[in-house]
Amino acid sequence: MGAGSSTEAEREPLLVPSHVETNSNPVNSRVYGRRWLVLTLFSLLALMQGMVWNFWGPIQNSAAHAYGFTKSDIAILVLWGPVGFVPWLLFMWLMDKKGLRLSLLVSTLFMVLGAALRSIPLTGQPLRRWLIHGGQLLNGLAGPTMMSAGPYLSTTWFPPDQRATATAVASLFAYLGSAASFIVGPLIVPAPNDTQALTTISAAVSDIFIRDRIQLVMYAELAAIAVLFGAVLLYFPARPPIPPSVAAASQRLSYRSSICRLLSNLRFLMIALAYAVPTGVLAGWSGVLDMVLTPAKVSQVDAGWIGFWSTVGGCVFGVAMARFADSIRGMLKLILVLMLAGASLASTWFTLTCLTSYTHLPSTSAILYTSCILVGIFINSSVPIFLELFIETVYPVPEGITCGVVTFLGNLVTGLLLFFLTFYCKVLDISCLFSKLF
């Protein structure tokens, strides 16, 4: 209509289509089937680390006869697990800078050396006791990686709709290992409940038999850890060739910046406190459960079953809640509130049952077992939900560093509880000695 032809610039579209290439490279994502093999290897290692850590608590009566361990010795053997978290900053740095393969190899090597050290069949009891304590310490040094790397592994290998489930499996297998020790120990190692009525010779034979059965379990655990170490050495990639999601490929904060941000985040510290206190107290309490329940006339085998079902129930319920959280996002806080409320009610029920002379409430084996198991179920099942909440709260802090901080705090609470118990047992031993002398 009399207008001139349009120029090249006027013919440029106002809105660029989404498929037009830009200067920034798109992030490709791919999910590999081998992720389940990686998760299986890591979970089995976490299971063995938990079994070795909780080996002596469920058989404390048998260990007293076989090696002359006192109650304070058992508490110290359990305490080596939290003590192994002292160099946790070094393990978190190794995971952040070198990836999961190298940090897992170092931790597994500690587990192999620890299992081998405590399995040396020496006849001298003092030296044998030192080797057992040294082996437990080396196994405790693997704790920072085994208990903290689950969310890091799930983010590195799994898509967002499977991440909470993978975190639950990887983080709860260490608890499942401690649950397995509640069954394996008391079922294979006999309890010396009938040795008082026997003669000195038969009692000595019984102690030798108990020592042989303990040695058999330690050999079996050493063989299992050695096989897993070989499997990790042959195949355990640090990360997939292509990340499974945009979050896995995104740039994270540096190691120093991550620590500073975590320590200055008040919301994170409040959630970490809510996580560390109940889980830390429960871990220390479970490690000496047989010792705690002995005054209530609970046998070594029954205490093992209580610890087993409380931990296994927590693992199963925790995986179910993680699947629920994967399907419905934004429910993490409500789930945690309900779990902690249930744990509070169950622990109150258990306490009132134990104080029946003051409360005059009925105290039966069924009530004692049920309340004790419910405490473990509610607290243990909250662990993967807590870890997912931590990751969402402090993103883009790396998952390994975040979970390393909170697991260190939980083990700090466990260590304080076991240190108090060790001191209390020492005072009782001294008072008993004075009562015999005077």
- CATH class categorisation: Mainly Alpha
Tell me how many strands there are: 0
CATH topology: Growth Hormone, Chain: A
Strand content: under 5%
Function: Mediates H(+)-dependent pyridoxine transport.
Catalytic activity: pyridoxine(out) + n H(+)(out) = pyridoxine(in) + n H(+)(in)
Protein name: Solute carrier family 49 member 4
Keywords: Glycoprotein, Lysosome, Membrane, Transmembrane, Transmembrane helix, Transport
Short description:
By secondary structure, this protein is mainly α. It has one domain (about 35-190, about 200-235, about 265-435): MFS general substrate transporter like domains (Growth Hormone, Chain: A, Up-down Bundle), CATH 1.20.1250.20. About 75% of the residues lie in helices and about 0% in strands.
